[in-house]
Amino acid sequence: MSLPSLVFVHGAWHGPEHWEPLATVLRKEGFSCFTPLLDFCGSEHPVDSIASSIRQIQQNLETETSAGRNVVVINHSFGGCVGCSSVKGFTKRDPSRLSDDSGYVVGIIQLCAFMSPLRQSLYDVVGTLVFHRHGPDGWEVIHHGDPRHLFYNDLSHEEAQHWKSFLRKQSTRALLDRENVYPGWADVPVWYLCCDQDNAIPIAGQEAGIMAARKAGATITTRYIESGHSPFLSKTEKTAQFILEALASF
After folding, report:
1. Fewest C-beta in 10 Å: which of 28, 85, 159, 221?
2. What is the pLDDT of residues 153-182, one digit of tens each?
3. What is the pLDDT of residues 86-96, one digit of tens each?
4. Could you please report the per-residue DSSP string of 200-219?
5. Which residues contact 166 (CB under 8 A, 6 or more apart)?
């Protein structure tokens, strides 16, 4: 049986560089890994929604499934809203964007990632109790806490500073978009890695999202890891093993 292709969806402020340690491990296992820079983050001008980022992901999904390959989407943080939305039409439950001989999106892997209900924005889910706020120029501003402490609290100072240097601007309106949010987590099995030292999405918030999605019909398998918000950086090998276990189940 051929291995599924892996499409990685980064979180707010982040980008492809942050996936590279994990993707390197998984490529050595024979997986094709796609780590696009999504334009809700780091574009020249702030975007108005997540629609264009969804289209970027779906280009990867279309290329892989049309070649007969199955796909697993791996999401981090805010990327959960975008990645889950992107699978609409690419699953066995909803194959509306697929042909008879296509592959499918067969599963979603969430790394401390949001699971937004239908047409609920990130801000609808979390309210105003967040470490960021709207800036005057369309970019979101981190106003409470240092990104090193929020995202990389279980890395050394030097490592945290290194990964902080790759952070990009984050479009505010992407976090406010409701229209394009779709609960793809209800269409395929989900594996969720809960990070119990996360300073960006506290563990209680992760568990609340999982519970709400299960009540809405999602099939979710959970595992826990002693990690901050970026287990793919601080616990790369353990995160890879979690992903391999999830892939075997799909």
Report:
1. 28
2. 999 999 999 999 999 999 999 999 999 999
3. 999 999 999 99
4. SS-HHHHHHHHHHHHHTT--
5. 14, 15, 17, 18
Structural domains counted in the chain: 1
Alpha-carbon distance 241 to 178, whole Å? 34
Q: How far apart are CA 178 and CA 118, in angstroms?
A: 8
Q: Give the torsion through C-alpha atoms of 34, 35, 37, 39, to 10 deg.
A: 70
Query: The CATH number of the domain where 88 resides is what?
Result: 3.40.50.1820
237-249 residue pLDDT tens: 999 999 999 999 9
pLDDT at residue number 128 = 79
Cα dist from 28 to 49, 232, 250, whole Å: 35, 16, 20
Alpha carbon of 24 to those of 16, 42, 240, 245: distances in Å? 12, 23, 10, 17
Rounded to the nearest 10 degrees, what angle do helices 236-249 and 20-28 cross at? 50
Which range marks the domain in which residue 46 is found? Answer: 5-249
Radius of gyration from C-alpha coordinates of the chain: 17
> How many Cα neighbours within 13 Å face the side chain of 25?
15
Kindly report the number of other CB atoms within 10 A of residue 8's CB atom.
27
User: Which residue in this structure is represented by tokens 């030097």?
Assistant: 158
Q: What are phi and psi of 96, to 5 degrees?
A: -65, -20
Phi/psi for 105 (5° steps) reads: -80, 115
